[in-house]
Design a protein that fits this description.
Blueprint: H1 2-18, E1 23-24, E2 27-30, E3 35-38, E4 49-53, E5 60-66, E6 76-78, E7 81-83, E8 89-91, E9 94-95, E10 97-99, H2 110-126, E11 162-164, E12 168-173, E13 179-184, E14 192-195, H3 196-213, H4 220-234, E15 236-237, H5 246-252, E16 254-255, H6 257-270, E17 274-282, E18 291-299, E19 302-306, H7 308-313, E20 321-323, H8 325-328, E21 332-334
Parallel strand pairs: 1-4, 15-16
Antiparallel strand pairs: 2-3, 4-5, 5-10, 6-7, 7-8, 8-9, 11-12, 12-13, 13-14, 17-18, 17-21, 18-19, 19-20
Helix pairs in contact: 3-5, 4-6, 5-6
Length: 343
């Protein structure tokens, strides 16, 4: 037992000497998909570093690790150190702490923070997103109930704005990344980051698609067919730096199943269709792993299975468009829990 205590003491000593002695009392940021930490309150996100943080300014700090994307790690090990469910460094289940000087200037104005959050919430609830078009025949009038503004105006949002509807969620990061994070219903834990210039290019391509191919008089089915025809004509299956996201699909024109799936979901959402992503396995090319993703889409109140990756690969025969669960199940498998029934 003596040796074990001695080793623990060495670990604590190593942590306190190898990492910065500064104890931060900034702001924790809950982004639903994880926690980040603003060290100064003006956009200096912790990333790729260990920090001692005195979250409640009581003179006792706990140690946390933030990865290169700025998210706090939890329930795992880093550099041989164990992090608990709250992200705190622990030894034998005991949270490791360090006494730090209390920052009297950091005492928050609680009432002011409450009023600020109320104001932000009210602003979010009033947000309406409509397609900005140059052609009178294009889609107009959709709101946040079923459509993001297809041209997500990154420059108009704050650092940590979170926008969501029944199809997808978008998070804006102004500093230090200048990026947009998006994820779709059905695959919320595996979203993608786009850099600002990539999002601008996606915005342009999305608007051009809507202006050219989508009109207000179209039925749900006609919108979906326009999306699939566009994707089959403009996208090839293959490797690229963005093979699993909408930039790869709409700008580079070369993606794998994740890119096909996200691009279909993005365009369907922009055209006012409800969609979600299915993750499972598929029997396709034996040279590729079985892990696969595809879509469900709601047309005129009824849900259908759609796999644009396979549809493109089979010459656009319609075999993998608007089919039932039983039909898709012939060469696809997935966990059906919580998904709409397609029959």
């Amino acid at each position: 037992m003596r040796n074990r205590k001695f080793i623990t003491a060495l670990l604590i000593s190593a942590m306190t000497t190898s990492f910065s002695f500064t104890a931060f009392a900034g702001n924790w940021i809950d982004l639903s998909i994880g926690w980040q930490y603003d060290k100064t309150g003006v956009g200096s996100l912790a990333h790729d570093e260990w920090l001692w943080i005195d979250g409640n300014n009581d003179g006792t700090a706990e140690c946390y690790y933030f990865d290169a994307t700025g998210f706090m790690w939890h329930d795992k090990e880093k550099d041989g150190y164990t992090l608990n469910s709250q992200g705190q460094w622990v030894v034998d289940g005991v949270i490791q702490t360090k006494q730090v000087e209390i920052d009297n200037s950091a005492a928050p104005d609680v009432q002011a923070l409450i009023e600020k959050r109320k104001e932000e919430k009210a602003q979010y609830e009033k947000l309406k997103f409509t397609a900005v078009t140059t052609n009178e025949d294009t889609v107009t009038g959709y709101t946040a109930a079923n459509l993001f503004d297809p041209v997500l105006k990154y420059h108009e949002y704050n650092r940590y704005d979170k926008l969501s509807n029944q199809n997808m969620t978008v998070l804006f990061y102004k500093q230090p990344y200048d990026s947009v994070y998006y994820s779709f219903k059905g695959n919320e834990d595996n979203g993608s980051f786009l850099q600002l210039e990539e999002q601008d290019a996606v915005n342009k391509a999305t608007q051009e698609f809507l202006n050219k191919y989508i009109t207000a008089e179209m039925s749900d089915y006609e919108k979906e067919q326009a999306i699939i025809n566009f994707m089959v004509d403009h996208i090839d299956y293959g490797y690229s730096s963005n093979a699993s996201d909408i930039y790869g699909g709409l700008v580079l024109g070369k993606v794998q199943c994740g890119g096909y799936t996200d691009t279909f979901a993005w365009l369907a959402n922009a055209a006012g269709l409800n969609t979600l992503i299915v993750c499972g396995e598929a029997k396709g090319n034996p040279n590729y792993p079985p892990q696969h993703a595809w879509n469900l889409v709601e047309l005129d109140g009824k849900w259908y299975q759609v796999d644009v990756t396979f549809e493109d690969g089979t010459g656009a025969t319609g075999k993998y468009v608007n089919i039932t669960d039983d039909q898709m199940g012939k060469d696809h498998s997935w966990e059906p829990g919580g998904l709409p029934v397609c029959n």
